Amino acid sequence: MKVGVLGSGDVGQALGRGFVNRGHDVKLSSRNPKGEAVTTWLSKTKGKASTGTYADAARHGEVLVLATPGSATEDIIRTAGVANFKGKLVIDVTNPLAFEGSSPGLFVGVTDSLGERIQRLLPDAKVVKAFNTVPNTQMVDPKFAGGAPAMMIAGDDAAAKKKVAGILKEFGWPGPLDLGGIQSARWLEASVMLWVLAGTALGRWDHAFQVVHG
Ligand SMILES: NC(=O)c1ccc[n+]([C@@H]2O[C@H](COP(=O)([O-])OP(=O)(O)OC[C@H]3O[C@@H](n4cnc5c(N)ncnc54)[C@H](OP(=O)(O)O)[C@@H]3O)[C@@H](O)[C@H]2O)c1
Predict the structure, then answer these.
(1) How far, in Å, CA of 71 to CA of 75, rounded?
(2) Which residues does ligand 1 sit against, CB inside 6 Å?
């Protein structure tokens, strides 16, 4: 698969590396593709990946990964070119975190979500919210005491979600827990605040949510 990763932070690098290590053709992108973080990442892929601008990555991928700061994501999509997303699976890992005051909050929620905003901005793309409730260190080859939980995902397109299910299995997850249409991103994104509180209570940041039943 040709994969375009938008965002070169911890998430973009981890997922980009995961796709490279499974033989996919990855282009990782940044505002500064010649910057140290990106070139160091590239040097570790042993020539099996490439880097470029947001537009380069959006053109390159048949699958696109949004790994950008929530508050910058819509601008980054416009910079990358809305037309470059047409017909593609867009794996949306973003969270609408707002950093004002002493603790983080969300800049959208309850009656809307960043996932829905992205789907509205990209009506011809198939947006699937995934990976946003797990830490970057666990996104590929997850290691949890008791095994990895199903990944909670949301999106309007069934075929796109099936593709994400395949990617999850490639990355070592048991599969998805499909929460329905992209509207469910409201609650997937909100649960990130719960994830932060749980991490604070546990004193560690390698945790994830699991739905259990009798
Ligand atoms: N970190 C996690 O474990 C985790 C887990 C789940 C979900 N998420 C979500 O996944 C997304 C990515 O997380 P991250 O931790 O990798 O993000 P990040 O490091 O904060 O940002 C990713 C990259 O975006 C670029 N960037 C930053 N500000 C920008 C701006 N104003 N305009 C354009 N580009 C900008 C930067 O790269 P350049 O300077 O090279 O352009 C940065 O390396 C976020 O929405 C986050 O909430 C994170």
Answers:
(1) 8
(2) 7-12, 30-32, 35, 37, 67-70, 72, 76, 93-95, 97, 132, 135-136
Question: pTM of this prediction?
Answer: 0.98
**Domains observed in the chain:** 2-202 (3.40.50.720)
- Summarised one tens digit per residue, pLDDT across range 126-175 is 999 999 999 999 999 999 999 999 999 999 999 999 999 999 999 999 99
Give the Å distance between the CA of 171 and the centre of ligand 1: 21
CA of 156 to the centre of ligand 1 (A): 25
CA-to-CA dists, residue 110 to 170, 190, 191, angstroms: 32, 8, 11
* Pair of tokens at residue 57: 């990555």
Give the pLDDT confidence score for residue 31 in this predicted structure. 96
